[in-house]
Structures are given as structure tokens and as C-alpha cells.
């Protein structure tokens, strides 16, 4: 039995509590400083999570942000980052006050960062920030893969991958969190896993735009009936670009064909928030208008990632090798209509 603290009571942080509890761990879900109302709501409704629309197990302890530091003063075996990518610095600020060396951190967050004009993974960003705060010995694993949060909360069979350069760490975590419905593979390619899990969000927006991109001269009903040819072509081209991108930035090509790449691209393109944004972009909406009109308070990690890494990628990579990526980066960063140079 391990004491697991999950920070961020959004959909994924909360759903991740389910397999952790199933394994008899003691799990505390702590909201961010902006989630006090959400935490009150969950606690006063028998752990019913409003975004997941499911009652989380009664064994789950749910706490407001004000309790976080006192929780850290006690024994903590594993810290889980359940915030979205824009919350990573905030997350580090919270854990740095009481971080004990080599306490395992599990990173659920999918994203990348730019530091000193270099593209880095979020695990490297966390390590760098913690080091600046005096913590040199840090142990981070990432869990990535196809996992829509509500599906996990409902115990739908799900496969993910735990990555750490030290494979022994992944094996330890696997035993602590896997269940018969939450199976975990392991990988030592942390960089490749994080790169794949992040950029699939950009490509799932592109695949989500398939209908609108299929044939602009065709009537809408024909587009929505026959767009799958276009999707398939976009999936094929996305995977090719992902392999080249991941290899360029230091990950392994074979990682892209696994759960964190191809697997997650499928889930996100078929049922994710990124592909929904892509649908609006394909219909001709500008990113800012679509976000404001249809997805104001909804996390769209692919767009956050494009804004974070876009200028660097446009500088680093050859547009001829990455026509899809370049189209989406220009669409989001310059708030322009989505167009693909096929
Ligand atoms: N590893 C996996 O298997 C999976 C990972 N994910 C990833 O998990 C992350 C969270 O996704 P999900 O739970 O679906 O998203 P939600 O929008 O449901 O939750 C986002 C969480 O991040 C917090 N957050 C957002 N902005 C900030 C900020 N600026 N500072 C501090 N906290 C912030 C939110 O708190 P607040 O109310 O304060 O904004 C909330 O707790 C994403 O990176 C997503 O890609 C998603 C699915 C599967
Ligand atoms: O990462 C996810 C599933 O694995 C969630 O995808 P979306 O962010 O596109 O909803």
C-alpha cells in the first residue's frame, strides 16, 4: 500500500485515482488553488465528479488546495501531476516546498516546453525547475497512451505505457497501479514517449479537420458521409511526420508506433477534445473564434502546445518534411484559416 497524492482534480487526475485505489493504495486527490468549488461539489455529492459524471470510490480522499502543504509534511510515496501543461510551473512550485529526494513523480500531463531556445520534455522541465529550487535528486516517470478519462473512471479496458530511463522504476510503478482493466506497458524511452504523447495532440486536430478538408466544393452532407478517405490519408501522413519529429528530437522511432503515439492518436482523433477543435478549424473557423464560441473552458492541449513550441519548430524543422505540422502551427499561432499544402 502506497500513499499517492494526485494534484489537479480535472478529468484525468481524478480518473487516475480509480486504478490506484483498486490496488489498495491510499489516494488523496488535491484540487488546484482554483478548484475549491469543484472540491466542495465533489465532497458534498458522494464523490460525484461533475466532468466525469461518475461517483469516484468512497475510499478516495478529496482535499482542497489549502491542505496540500500539510499533506506533504506527512509521508508521501508517489506524487502525480494531473494538471494540464500550462499548470506545470505551478505544480513544481507546490511540490518544491516539501519535496523529499527521489520521491517518485508520475507525470500524466501531455506537453513540451521551450527553455533557453531548446525544445525539452515536461519531465526535463520539472527536473530543471526543481534543481533551481535546490532539489538535485528527482525521480520522474511519465504515463502516456490512449486514455479518455471518463473511460478509465468507468473501468473500460485501457492500455497505457509507463516510461522512465531506469526501467526498474517503471516495473515498480506497474505493480502499484495496474489492474485488470488498466494495463501498463513499460519503456525506457521517456523522451520518445513524451514527444509522441504531446505531438499527437497537434495531429489529432488535423485528423479532426478531415471533413472540412475532404473536398471544399462538395456539399456538407457529402463531406460528412465520405470524409474517411481523407482521414486515412491524414493518419498515414501524421504517423510519418511523428516518426521524423520524434527521431529529430531524440526519441526512438519505434515508440511512435506504440500506445503513446499511434494508440493515442487514434483515441484523440476519434473521441478527443483536440479533434473537436480540429473539426471547427476544418469548417473554416479561426482558432480564437472557435475556442471562444465552442470550447471556452475546455482544455485543448494541441493548441496550447502549438503556442508554446510553434515558433521554435518553424525555425528548427524543414517545412517540406512537416507539411501537416506547419499548417497547424501557422493556423494556431497566427490565428489563420487552416490550409494544407497536400
Ligand atoms: N496520461 C494519460 O493517460 C492522460 C493524460 N491526459 C493529460 O492530462 C492533463 C489534464 O487533462 P484533463 O484532466 O483531461 O484536463 P482538465 O481540463 O479536466 O483538467 C485540467 C487540470 O489542470 C489544471 N490547470 C489548468 N491550468 C492550470 C494552471 N494555469 N495552473 C495550475 N493548474 C492548472 C486544472 O485546474 P484549474 O481548475 O485550476 O484550471 C485541472 O486540475 C492534460 O495534459 C492531458 O493531455 C489526458 C488523458 C490521458
Ligand atoms: O490524451 C487524451 C487521450 O489519451 C485526451 O485527448 P484529448 O485531449 O484530445 O481529449
Rg for CA atoms: 20 Å
Q: Under CATH, the topology of the largest domain is which?
A: Rossmann fold
**Tally the helices: what do you get?**
17
Biggest sheet details? 8 strands, mixed
* DSSP summary, beta strand count: 12
Give the proportion of residues in helices.
40-55%
Structural class: alpha/beta
**What is the CATH class designation of the largest domain?**
Alpha Beta
**Ligand identities:** NADPH dihydro-nicotinamide-adenine-dinucleotide phosphate, 1,3-dihydroxyacetonephosphate
CATH homologous superfamily title of the largest domain: NAD(P)-binding Rossmann-like Domain
Strand proportion: 5-15%
Order of helices and strands: EHEHEEEHEHEEEHEHEHEHHHHHHHHHH
How far apart the termini lie comes to 53 Å
Describe the structure.
There is one protein chain. By secondary structure, the chain is α/β, with parallel strands linked by helices. It folds into two domains: 186 residues, 3-Layer(aba) Sandwich (Rossmann fold), CATH 3.40.50.720; 135 residues, N-(1-d-carboxylethyl)-l-norvaline Dehydrogenase, domain 2 (Orthogonal Bundle). 52% of the residues lie in helices and 15% in strands. The chain contains 17 helices and twelve strands. Strands 5-2-1-6-7-10-11-12 form an eight-stranded mixed sheet, with helices on both faces. Helix 4 packs parallel to helix 5, helix 8 runs antiparallel to helix 11 and helix 8 packs parallel to helix 14. It is globular and about 60 Å long. The relative contact order is 0.11. Bound molecules: NADPH dihydro-nicotinamide-adenine-dinucleotide phosphate (NDP) and 1,3-dihydroxyacetonephosphate. The site of NADPH dihydro-nicotinamide-adenine-dinucleotide phosphate (NDP) has 28 residues, from helix 1 and strand 10.
Amino acid at each position: 500500500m502506497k500513499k499517492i497524492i494526485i494534484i489537479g482534480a480535472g478529468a484525468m487526475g481524478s480518473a487516475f485515482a480509480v486504478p490506484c485505489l483498486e490496488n489498495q493504495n491510499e489516494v488523496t486527490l488535491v484540487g488546484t488553488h482554483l478548484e475549491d468549488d469543484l472540491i466542495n461539489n465533489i465532497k458534498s455529492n458522494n464523490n460525484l465528479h461533475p466532468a466525469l459524471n461518475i461517483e469516484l470510490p468512497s475510499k478516495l480522499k478529496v482535499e482542497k488546495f489549502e491542505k496540500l502543504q500539510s499533506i506533504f509534511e506527512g509521508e508521501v510515496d508517489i506524487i502525480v501531476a494531473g494538471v494540464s501543461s500550462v499548470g506545470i510551473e505551478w505544480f513544481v512550485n507546490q511540490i518544491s516546498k516539501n519535496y523529499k529526494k527521489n520521491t517518485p513523480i508520475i507525470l500524466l500531463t501531455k506537453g513540451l516546453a521551450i527553455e533557453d531556445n531548446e525544445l525539452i520534455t515536461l519531465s526535463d522541465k520539472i527536473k530543471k525547475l526543481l534543481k533551481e529550487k535546490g532539489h538535485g535528486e528527482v525521480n520522474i516517470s511519465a504515463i502516456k497512451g490512449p486514455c479518455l478519462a471518463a473511460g478509465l473512471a468507468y473501468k473500460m479496458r485501457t492500455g497505457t505505457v509507463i516510461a522512465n530511463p531506469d526501467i526498474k522504476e517503471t516495473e515498480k510503478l506497474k505493480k502499484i497501479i495496474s489492474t485488470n482493466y488498466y494495463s501498463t506497458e513499460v519503456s525506457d524511452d521517456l523522451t520518445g514517449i513524451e514527444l509522441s504523447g504531446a505531438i499527437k495532440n497537434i495531429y489529432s486536430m488535423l485528423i479532426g479537420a478531415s471533413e472540412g478538408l475532404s473536398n471544399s466544393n462538395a456539399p456538407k452532407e457529402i463531406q460528412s458521409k465520405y470524409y474517411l478517405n481523407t482521414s486515412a490519408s491524414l493518419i498515414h501522413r501524421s504517423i510519418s511526420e511523428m516518426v521524423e519529429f520524434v527521431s529529430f528530437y531524440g526519441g526512438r522511432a519505434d515508440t511512435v508506433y506504440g500506445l503513446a503515439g499511434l494508440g493515442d492518436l487514434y483515441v484523440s482523433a476519434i473521441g478527443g477534445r483536440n479533434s473537436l477543435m480540429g473539426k471547427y478549424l476544418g469548417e473554416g473557423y479561426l482558432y480564437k473564434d472557435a475556442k471562444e464560441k465552442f470550447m471556452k473552458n475546455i482544455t485543448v492541449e494541441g493548441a496550447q502546445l502549438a503556442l508554446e513550441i510553434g515558433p521554435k519548430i518553424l525555425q528548427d524543422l524543414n517545412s517540406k518534411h512537416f507539411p501537416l505540422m506547419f499548417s497547424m502551427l501557422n493556423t494556431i499561432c497566427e490565428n489563420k484559416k487552416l490550409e494544407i499544402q497536400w
